[in-house]
Design goal:
Elements (H helix, E strand, L loop, with lengths): L4 H7 L14 H9 L3 H5 L5 H20 L4 H32 L3 H13 L13 H9 L7 H10 L1 H6 L11 H5 L8 H11 L8 H11 L2 E4 L3 E4 L9 E3 L2 E3 L6 H12 L2 H15 L6 H13 L4 H9 L15 H12 L3 H5 L3 H15 L16 H4 L2 H13 L1 H4 L6 H9 L5 H8 L4 H10 L1 H4 L2
Antiparallel strand pairs: 1-2, 3-4
């Protein structure tokens, strides 16, 4: 294995820093990952219950508006204030998310959180729900990235955000008690399809359309209740058994354990091992992954029964994981946070940025780079291919950010040559070093560093 501390910080972390030492070894990286989650405590993000509370207030106000038309204007103003509160809260959670990457000594954790959040993508499709994505990541994803994949799969699948996003909450079995009472309600296959196609087996996995339909029947009953959260409603469920991937689940008694049994089995399926291994390698290392590395990671996953720490270790201890030159293009969130980390943005300064400036310096530019925060185009999340990110508009937006925003984040910019060495280490080319030395001023030189091809890649 050709471990390299700079590569560890850039490819598997959140970038190099002048003040924070890069990992010393793979064991060091994994020990930090398995240790306490210091960044979550230092930069807290709320939980779904906080957004639920705002939803409940708006629900009551909407009822008041219907019951008392004379208060319509007043109520609408109060609803508007609550929506603004939710939007500002969402931006504060983005600030915390970014701060974790900028100031962490455990960059692998932050990258894995983003990877798994994207793997289990949710999008808030209804009004207030779009402000709750960060809470889903905090509730379902972040606490489970070092355990067994089966637990991560279950917590993501059962979270209200996933159930709402994929329209599972209204899905009822064709022969259920609820269907008998309300014949217009029926089965919805969205969650079943995405669990098989995106979350586990992969699009080329060993399943059929009939497996999707049978799983949708098995999933009927997974729903969300206001104030009660996730629940399993046996009256919505299909009398079993359902046969999925050749095995029967369920029976005379409808219960959640039939679903969890299936997800436990699905988590250790050989196709799941291959799919997850390939996704990890593609995300961190190469759009065209080394077949031997993928097979090595898949074997570790399979042999450990889906243990994620064993899976990460297998990836990080394989020589191909450290191959150069760097091939992966940083996604906009990684580009922005690694720039701030290299720039040495002060924690106090970052914390004091008004939410409108966060929108100006982060949200709007990232949108121009092709990544609207918490709003991918579909359940398959963000694209991995370099061609998706390095477009004329996306590249122009990166250059514009590099040339203008750093001056707003630090009152005194670092010397360009010093910054280039901090940000790139031995990746720094002689051409870029000379360009930094010849730059007109510090702002121009800093922009050259962040806009450089060397910095754009992991």
């Amino acid at each position: 294995m050709a471990f390299n501390s700079e590569t560890a910080a850039i490819r598997f972390g959140t970038g190099l820093s002048a003040k924070i030492a890069p990992p010393a070894s793979v064991d060091d990286m994994l020990a930090r990952l398995k240790g306490p989650d210091a960044m979550a405590e230092r930069f807290p993000i709320g939980h779904f219950a906080q957004v639920e509370e705002l939803m409940e207030k708006i629900r009551k106000l909407n009822k008041l508006r219907r019951d008392d038309p004379d208060k319509r204007v007043e109520v609408q103003q109060r609803i508007g204030k609550l929506r603004n509160q939710a939007q500002r809260q969402q931006i504060e959670w983005l600030r915390a998310h970014m701060a974790r990457s900028i100031f962490t000594e455990d960059g692998l954790r932050e990258r894995l959180v983003r990877f798994w959040a994207d793997h289990f993508t949710v999008i808030g499709k209804k009004s207030m729900w779009r402000f709750a994505v960060s809470t889903y990541v905090e509730d379902a994803i972040r606490p489970n990235i070092t355990g067994n994949f089966a637990e991560l799969l279950k917590t993501a699948t059962f979270h209200p955000m996933m159930l709402m996003f994929l329209d599972q909450v209204n899905s009822v079995g064709p022969n259920s008690v609820v269907a008998a009472r309300t014949p217009k309600r029926g089965i919805n296959e969205n969650l079943a399809r995405e669990v098989l196609e995106l979350h586990t087996l992969g699009v080329d996995g060993a399943y059929t359309q009939n497996d999707v339909f049978e799983l949708a029947k098995l999933f009927a009953g997974l729903t969300y209740r206001r104030k009660g959260g996730f629940t399993y409603d046996a009256k919505m469920s299909e009398p079993g058994p359902e046969t999925v991937l050749g095995k029967a689940y369920g029976g005379y008694i409808q219960d959640l354990f039939h679903v969890t049994d299936f997800l436990d089995d699905l988590a250790v399926h050989p196709d799941t091992a291959r799919h997850l291994a390939r996704k990890l390698v593609v995300h961190f290392i190469s759009d065209d992954p080394d077949a031997a590395l993928v097979a090595h990671v898949a074997a570790a996953y399979r042999d450990s029964g889906g243990d994620l720490m064993a899976t990460y270790r297998a990836m990080l201890t394989h020589e191909a994981a450290w191959a150069m030159p760097a091939e992966k293009v940083k996604q906009p969130i990684d580009f922005v946070t690694s720039s701030m980390r290299a720039l040495g943005v002060k924690e106090k300064k970052f914390a004091e940025l008004k939410w409108k400036k966060i929108r100006t310096y982060v949200i709007a530019p990232m949108g121009l780079m092709g990544q609207m925060w918490e709003n991918p185009t579909g359940p398959d999340g963000w694209a991995e291919e370099a061609e998706h990110w390095i477009t004329p508009q996306g590249l122009a937006a990166r250059i514009q950010w590099a040339m203008t925003v750093p001056t707003q984040l630090r009152s005194k910019l670092p010397e360009p040559v010093a910054l280039a060495k901090t940000a790139l280490g031995t990746r720094l080319s002689l051409e870029l070093l000379q360009a930094c030395d010849d730059s007109v001023d510090n702002a121009d030189g800093v922009g050259l560093v962040f806009a450089s091809p060397e910095f754009q890649r992991n």
